[in-house]
């Protein structure tokens, strides 16, 4: 049976029977604005009230693998629609619960309630976030942890660590400024300057940098997020990047990071001192507290612009008022740049050796440069349909070919996706509904574009034990080869997931 597979900035679609046992967790949330000061500066933030209090980041959803999750989501934003995507869950039985506005559902309008019910069948560190425009940049996201009964690290104490950059205006105002035509006929640079960064919704902005035109209150010396630990204990840190434009380099002063899982998939322990995390990615990292009991900086540094923001690792006997006194030379030491050196373990339930790929899909990504006001996949710009794609498919039993980039795949196809990036910048790529094998990535060049060449590059694929994940960085002016089995009955959607670009492309 040929099943239409959509590519939408690129959508790959494939339906399936299911049988489920397990508990059901029900949550009742209201999405709401609050005026608050995550980094010291007061602004309107979007968070979630779970009936006990308003929270940013949103409440943690934590369930066991195989359990059902129900979230009754009430949109309490007076003037904005919303939707929530459950990043990391494949929605095999419930594609209409994937949360992508205009693709898998209509937006949830102000005052309306949407019942998200899905099966948490993918274990590990995941997250949920608004999938309406760039709305998550204003705070609408939270952690989704699915516990695996076979998790080798389940007995370790742990911390969830969200990292994201933070702006002093709402996402609409932040990114819109840069898409307006200037009187000269040129655009401003669409990449917005770094303002500050947050760990679990806490950061510190230097209020003295504010201009005299800025009337909003800014309280100096905003408290850092602190992770209090016991000496000689090993902790698991579940790092999640909820970034909007930046890739981060993570480190903990004087401590090694041992990566044990990526996007919910176990890998053989890999020890490094710094680690690069792309927007949407998750790294489960073990940290052994073997240093003199004290306070230590946890650092996130933006990859291109080297803006740093911090949290504090505090041994329980150290002062919770003082700041770390150590420094850490980020130019030396080991760094894990991407998932390439990581090897999946047998604890995973997938086949470590990828199948032979029977179908190839090419995606060529281009933008208007240097201004980058518009971007294209296979020369098509994303146009969100007025009727959600999934609804059209179910009603007409045919893919809406008049929307953006649709590929037909048969159920069970082994699909090789070659992505050529003609842009002078890297981008996160995220596949909905599946994990993919990371087969190879091309070299990057300072001067010219290196696109995929089968004769030259096919030999470089890791066909033995490639890492598997759901979000990856597409290198600048280069290519990426990923592969997946189209075994999700219904749909998948590949996005390149930068808030700024979503905003722009949704226009
Ligand atoms: Cu996702």
UniProtKB/TrEMBL annotation:
<protein>
    <recommendedName>
        <fullName>Laccase</fullName>
    </recommendedName>
</protein>
<dbReference type="GO" id="GO:0005507">
    <property type="term" value="F:copper ion binding"/>
</dbReference>
<dbReference type="Pfam" id="PF00394">
    <property type="entry name" value="Cu-oxidase"/>
</dbReference>
<dbReference type="InterPro" id="IPR011707">
    <property type="entry name" value="Cu-oxidase-like_N"/>
</dbReference>
<dbReference type="InterPro" id="IPR045087">
    <property type="entry name" value="Cu-oxidase_fam"/>
</dbReference>
<keyword id="KW-0732">Signal</keyword>
<dbReference type="InterPro" id="IPR001117">
    <property type="entry name" value="Cu-oxidase_2nd"/>
</dbReference>
<dbReference type="InterPro" id="IPR011706">
    <property type="entry name" value="Cu-oxidase_C"/>
</dbReference>
<keyword id="KW-0186">Copper</keyword>
<dbReference type="GO" id="GO:0016491">
    <property type="term" value="F:oxidoreductase activity"/>
</dbReference>
<feature type="domain" description="Plastocyanin-like">
    <location>
        <begin position="159"/>
        <end position="313"/>
    </location>
</feature>
<dbReference type="Pfam" id="PF07732">
    <property type="entry name" value="Cu-oxidase_3"/>
</dbReference>
<keyword id="KW-0560">Oxidoreductase</keyword>
<dbReference type="Pfam" id="PF07731">
    <property type="entry name" value="Cu-oxidase_2"/>
</dbReference>
<feature type="signal peptide">
    <location>
        <begin position="1"/>
        <end position="22"/>
    </location>
</feature>
<comment type="similarity">
    <text>Belongs to the multicopper oxidase family.</text>
</comment>
<feature type="domain" description="Plastocyanin-like">
    <location>
        <begin position="31"/>
        <end position="150"/>
    </location>
</feature>
<keyword id="KW-0479">Metal-binding</keyword>
<feature type="domain" description="Plastocyanin-like">
    <location>
        <begin position="388"/>
        <end position="488"/>
    </location>
</feature>
<dbReference type="InterPro" id="IPR008972">
    <property type="entry name" value="Cupredoxin"/>
</dbReference>
């Amino acid at each position: 049976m040929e099943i239409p597979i959509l590519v939408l900035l690129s959508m790959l679609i494939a339906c399936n029977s299911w049988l489920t046992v397990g508990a059901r967790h029900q949550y009742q949330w209201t999405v709401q604005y609050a005026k608050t000061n995550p980094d010291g500066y007061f602004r309107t933030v979007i968070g979630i009230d779970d009936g006990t209090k308003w929270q940013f980041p949103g409440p943690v959803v934590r369930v066991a693998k195989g359990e059902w999750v129900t979230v009754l989501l009430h949109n309490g934003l007076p003037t904005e629609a919303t939707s929530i995507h459950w990043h990391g869950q494949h929605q095999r039985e419930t594609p209409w619960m994937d949360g992508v506005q205009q693709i898998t559902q209509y937006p949830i309008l102000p005052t309306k309630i949407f019942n998200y019910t899905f099966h948490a069948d993918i274990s590990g560190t995941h997250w949920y976030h608004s999938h309406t425009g760039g709305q998550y940049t204003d705070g609408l996201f939270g952690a989704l942890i699915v516990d695996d009964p076979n998790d080798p690290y389940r007995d370790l104490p742990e911390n969830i660590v969200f990292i994201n950059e933070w702006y002093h205006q709402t996402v609409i105002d932040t990114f819109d400024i840069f898409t307006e035509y200037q009187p000269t006929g040129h655009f401003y640079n669409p990449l917005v300057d770094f303002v500050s960064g947050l760990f679990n919704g806490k950061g510190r902005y230097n209020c003295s940098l504010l201009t005299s035109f800025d009337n909003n209150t800014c309280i100096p010396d905003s408290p850092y997020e602190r992770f209090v630990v016991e000496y000689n204990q090993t902790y698991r840190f579940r790092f999640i990047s909820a970034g909007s434009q930046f890739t981060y380099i993570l480190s903990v002063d004087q401590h090694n990071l041992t990566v044990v899982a990526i996007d919910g998939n176990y890998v053989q322990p890999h020890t490094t001192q710094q680690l690069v995390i792309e927007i949407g990615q998750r790294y489960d990292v073990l940290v052994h507290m073997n240093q003199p009991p004290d306070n230590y900086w946890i650092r996130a540094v933006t990859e291109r612009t080297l803006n740093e923001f911090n949290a504090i690792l505090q041994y329980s006997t150290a002062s919770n008022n003082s700041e770390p006194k150590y420094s850490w030379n980020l130019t030396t030491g080991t760094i894990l740049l991407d998932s390439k050196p990581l090897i999946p373990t047998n604890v995973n339930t997938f086949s470590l050796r990828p199948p032979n790929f029977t179908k190839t899909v090419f995606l060529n990504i281009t933008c208007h440069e240097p201004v980058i006001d518009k971007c294209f996949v296979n020369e098509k710009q994303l146009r969100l349909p007025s009727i959600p794609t999934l609804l059209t498919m179910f009603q007409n039993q045919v893919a809406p070919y008049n929307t953006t980039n649709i590929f037909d795949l048969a159920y069970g196809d082994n699909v090789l996706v070659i992505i050529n990036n003609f842009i002078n910048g890297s981008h996160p790529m995220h596949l909905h509904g599946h994990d993919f094998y990371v087969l190879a990535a091309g070299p990057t060049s300072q001067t010219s574009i290196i696109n995929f060449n089968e004769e030259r590059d096919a030999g470089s694929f890791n066909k033995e034990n490639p890492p598997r994940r759901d979000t990856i960085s597409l290198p600048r002016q280069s290519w990426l080869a990923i592969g997946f089995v189209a075994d999700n009955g219904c749909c998948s959607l590949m996005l390149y997931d930068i808030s700024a670009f979503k905003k722009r492309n949704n226009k």
